[in-house]
Amino acid sequence: MSRPSDLVQGTLDLLILKVVAREPMHGWAISQRIRQMSGDVLQVGQGALYPALHKLEQNGWLTAEWATSENNRRAKYYTLTAAGREALERETAGWERLSSAISLVVRAV
């Protein structure tokens, strides 16, 4: 049986794009925001987060620059690009279609 914290394959990109669309953030803050916004249900570990951030940066959906964090440490801050905003719209539409279809099956009698 799956645990509540397991992410559906492919949703991590959507979650990251959604969080970074609000404001530029560093990796640890992104994972904390996802956890907070999900009511502590979704917990994204570093082993999944940083490869996803790197992939999104390679896709041109995020840009990154080094800056000083709120803890006075160097951190890589990620910002959504114009292409990232378009991807976020596509990913959101795809998720809504998929989740609606799954709900139809789950709720069927």
What is the beta-strand fraction? 5-15%
Q: What is the count of β-strands?
A: 3
Helix fraction, binned, reads: 55-70%
- CATH superfamily assignment? Winged helix-like DNA-binding domain superfamily/Winged helix DNA-binding domain
How many distinct helices?
Answer: 4
Distance between the termini: 22 Å
Strands side by side in the biggest sheet: 1-3-2
Ranges with pLDDT <50 over ≥5 residues?
1-5
CATH architecture: Orthogonal Bundle
- Overall geometry: globular
Look up the CATH topology.
Arc Repressor Mutant, subunit A
List the helices and strands and how they pair.
Elements: H1 11-22, E1 25-26, H2 27-37, H3 46-58, E2 62-68, E3 74-80, H4 82-107
Can you characterise this structure?
The protein has helices at residues 11-22, 27-37, 46-58, 82-107; strands spanning 25-26, 62-68, 74-80. A hairpin with a 5-residue loop joins strand 2 (62-68) and strand 3 (74-80). The relative contact order is 0.16. The protein has a single domain (11-107), classed as Orthogonal Bundle (Arc Repressor Mutant, subunit A), CATH 1.10.10. The longest helix is centred in the C-terminal third of the chain and has 26 residues, at 82-107. The protein is of the alpha+beta class and 109 residues long. The protein has a 3-stranded antiparallel β-sheet with strand order 1-3-2. The protein is built from 4 helices and 3 strands.
